[in-house]
Amino acid sequence: MRRDSIFYALFQQSPSLLFELLKTPPANAQNYRFDSVAVKEPKFEIDGVFLPPETEVPGVVYFCEVQFQRDEQLYERLFGESFLYFYRNRERFSDWCAVVIYPSRSIEQSKTVPYQDLLEGDRVQRVYLDRLGDLDQLSLEVGLMILTTTPEDQASEAARSLLARSLQELQPERSRAIMEMITTIMVYKFTNLSRREIEAMLGLNLQETRVYQEAKAEGEQIGEQRGRQEGRQEGRQEGRQEGRQEGRQEGERSLILRLLNRQLGILPDPVTAQINELSIAQLEALGEALLDFATLADLEAWLENLSK
Questions:
Q1: Distance in angstroms (rounded) separating the CA atoms of residues 293 and 308
Q2: Maximum CA pair distance of the chain?
Q3: Could you write out the three-class secondary structure of 146-188?
Q4: Cα–Cα distances in Å, from 65 out to 90, 113, 122?
Q5: CB within 10 Å: which end of the chain, N or C, has fewer?
Q6: Which of 234, 259, 260, 261 is nearest to 247 (CA)?
Q7: Is 0.70 topped by the overall pTM?
Q8: Measuring CA to CA, how many Å separate 27 from each of 16, 24, 63, 108?
Q9: What is the mean pLDDT of each run of 10 residues along the chain (308 residues)?
């Protein structure tokens, strides 16, 4: 299960989530942005970096590592990459902190003597998800982290609890993002089930939920407005009908692209171009099929079959 990609998707949505895990978060936690950075000579790729606001120079940089498998050289790599990046950008930062997220203490690197001073200090904070407490007492985003480690026989109940909370506590846009993230986590966890089977397990039909219907209504409204504008410009009944049809198609296309971008990540330009060429009937078919897509490859295969 690619838990690291799920965690980094959560951090992209809510960079301040990292600081919910720390005992002493920075006062400006809400202003941090999440990024990945490259360090040259030699080149390292650091996936989890939280950068302070550019208006605060120098600031404190946070490095984050999500580790769900034992790695006996994790700290060598983490500190080597972090120190080199800090050295290359010394004028930007006044200090640094590293956060390592483990499912439990048993996964941690065993030989830590060379780094004991760092690990026992304030600049390195280790988070053990199994020690954070009751799922219902944590924030929704932290709850999603816990869900990635929940045993399969308990996962469906935990997921349904998080879904119910998201609908009760959040605005529709944010609730929809949480719902999609929960479904994605469960798809990774239960690899033998399709996305539709996962939704059935959770008692969730995305197209029947209030947040989906509101998004669809928004897209249709945009399309209808555009249609009326184009119809008025034509000044004839035929023009208005064509405008409404094009507007409806544009609204449907806009909705489908928004849902796909949230579900699969930002789509490559060639894939977006293919979708832009679809008819209204094909767009409606894609709206039904997208619920089964777990990866970009699933979407590309669907589009390829459509052209046959």
A1: 19
A2: 81
A3: HHCCCCHHHHHHHHHHHHHHHHHHCCHHHHHHHHHHHHHHHHH
A4: 21, 20, 16
A5: C
A6: 234
A7: no
A8: 11, 9, 17, 29
A9: 77 90 91 82 76 88 94 94 92 95 95 94 94 91 93 92 90 83 87 82 64 53 59 51 59 78 80 87 81 82 82
